[in-house]
TrEMBL record:
PANTHER family assigned to the protein according to its UniProt record, in alphabetical order: GLYCOSYL HYDROLASE, LP05116P
Entry keyword annotation includes Kinase: no
Species the sequence originates in: Arctia plantaginis
InterPro entries, per database record: GH, GH_1_N_CS, Glyco_hydro_1, Glyco_hydro_1_AS
Protein name stated in the entry: beta-glucosidase
Length: 491
């Protein structure tokens, strides 16, 4: 029987956290209200309306800036104890810099946090979920080494303002996707097509910014605020296309080294720094391509030390699995680029369901393998928890989202196996996402919410989908009941 747990205990442990995730730019709207400054997504989309598939932008989004009390009610109805959300940097620092603090923006988040806490929902706050203030973007964003200081200034403001009630912080959401899509592929804002160079500068200074903030918190805030700080990485699981071919097995490893370990190793390994494989690969490629230096910058010894151990948990976003085989050149690759440096052709199994978006095919065992990979490669996670900070799937706008119900059941079931059978130290799970939102360059087309949002209504009406009811049942019972929501039989 597929769903018989061969373990004595089929519940999530007592201390396992259930939560739900959002990001400021994707839901708030109110882009120019109450003194907010512009983020690069505002500025870029106003200048390039065709950048998003539906020519939309984040001006109004789900209007959470005004409807936050509704958001809180929705979170409560899910029966979860934690809410992972992000602060819009430009809302509290309109120019990005700490010389000018926007009082109204400060009040907005203060009120939101207090209202959440009143109903026993713990906010977990991300400082950067992709919305760089425009003045810094004009200076090169994360590719400018000075951003490290300015990000620290912003973080200090946030810790001072909210650290009395916010005890879990994450610095940056998915540095890998942000640098890859934003500074390399240029399919996300800032749309800088500096593939092979910009994407590694972004990686380098984002990692250093994270470390700087972690060390500042440790020194200036932890002694009295007593909270934790971490980072959220992302990873697709990577399986060999043909599990019997040595070169496909090798390609699957290469992918994880270049796309996950490049970020994880400097922070979570015993030795620190970029993994040797990544260093050698990019150095060799750079040499062959006649660069007089490696396209991957070097950390100093002090920087390696500052980064190593700079996260109190392993935040992990996971959505889908790809099948890998080696390749020297694919049509869509730019040269140089992280894709070309990696040298791996990525495919998906056409028989896996794709209920929402093309890139996301459903393969639940991937999450179990990913968590095991992290546990096996980073021994530190025996001491710090792994938190699944995002996991979810798209739909086409229907309320009866049976595919999402099964998605959550099946991925969470694999997580249960990872916990009980593989003894992985996974301590929390955050569904992506609370409600349909602005999905970056995909605009409002893919719907990822547990709640549907009617973007055509002035009120941005929210309606629970079936998956909301199902997730609530899981969160309240701490068990997966595969029969709780039954798809009507077709006659
Ligand atoms: C997450 O990233 C984000 O953290 C979150 O903000 C977002 O809403 C969520 O995904 C759901 O999309 O269309 O082939 O160009 C997940 C990583 C990066 C996966 C962009 C999809 C687009 C692939 N995503 N990628 S493609």
């Amino acid at each position: 029987l597929k769903y018989d747990l061969r373990v004595s205990n089929n519940s999530f442990p007592e201390d396992f956290i259930f939560g739900v995730s959002t990001a400021a730019f994707q839901i708030e709207g109110a882009w120019n209200e109450d003194g907010r400054g512009e983020s690069m997504w505002d500025t870029y989309l106003h200048q390039h309306p065709n950048f998003t598939v539906d020519h939309s932008n984040g001006d109004v989004a789900a209007d959470s800036y005004h409807k936050y009390m509704d958001d809180i009610e929705m979170i409560r109805n899910l029966g979860v104890s934690h809410y992972r959300m992000s602060i819009s940097w430009s809302r509290i620092l309109p120019n990005g810099t700490d010389n000018n603090i926007n009082h109204m923006g400060v009040i907005y988040y203060r009120t939101l946090f207090e209202e959440l806490l009143k109903v026993n929902i713990t906010p977990i706050v991300t400082l950067f979920h992709w919305d760089m203030p425009t003045p810094f973007m004009d200076l090169g964003g994360w590719s400018n080494p000075k951003i490290v200081d300015y990000f620290k200034d912003y973080a200090r403001v946030a810790f001072n303002l909210y650290g009395d009630i916010i005890k879990t912080w994450t610095t940056i959401n998915e540095p890998h996707q942000h640098c890859y899509m934003g500074y390399g592929l240029s399919t996300y804002v800032p749309a800088i097509a500096s593939h092979g160079i910009g994407e590694y500068l972004c990686t380098h200074y984002i990692l250093l910014s994270h470390a700087r903030v972690y060390r500042m918190y440790e020194k200036e805030f932890r002694p009295y605020q007593k909270g934790v700080v971490g980072i959220t990485l992302d990873a697709f699981w990577s399986d060999p296309k043909d599990p019997n071919k040595a070169e496909d097995i090798e390609a699957a490893h290469w992918y994880l080294k270049m796309h996950l370990d490049m970020y994880a190793h400097p922070i979570y390994s015993d030795t620190g720094d970029y993994p040797d494989f990544v260093r050698e690969r990019i150095n060799n490629m750079s040499l062959q391509q006649n660069y007089s230096r490696s396209r991957l910058p070097y950390f100093t010894d002090e920087e390696i030390d500052a980064l190593r151990g700079s996260s109190d948990f392993f935040g992990l976003n996971h959505y889908t699995t790809y099948l890998m085989s080696p390749s020297n050149m694919e049509e869509k690759w730019k040269v140089p680029s992280i894709d070309h440096d990696t040298g791996v052709k990525m495919e998906q199994n056409p028989s896996w369901a794709r209920p929402g978006t093309e890139w996301l095919s459903v393969h639940p065992p991937g999450i179990r393998k990913l968590v095991n990979y992290v546990q096996a490669n980073y021994l530190i996670v025996k001491k710090i928890p792994i938190l699944i900070t995002e996991n979810g799937v798209g739909d086409k706008g229907q309320i009866e989202d049976y595919e999402r119900v099964s998605f959550f059941n099946d991925y969470l079931y694999q997580l249960l196996l990872a916990i009980h059978q593989d003894h992985c130290n996974v301590k929390g799970y955050f569904a992506w996402t609370l409600m349909d939102d602005f999905e970056w360059s995909d605009g409002y087309v893919p719907k990822f919410g547990l709640y549907k949002v009617d973007f055509d209504s002035p009120n941005k009406t929210r309606t629970p989908k079936l998956s909301a009811k199902n997730y609530e049942h899981i969160a309240r019972t701490r068990k997966i009941d595969f029969n709780y929501i039954q798809r009507p039989l077709l006659h």
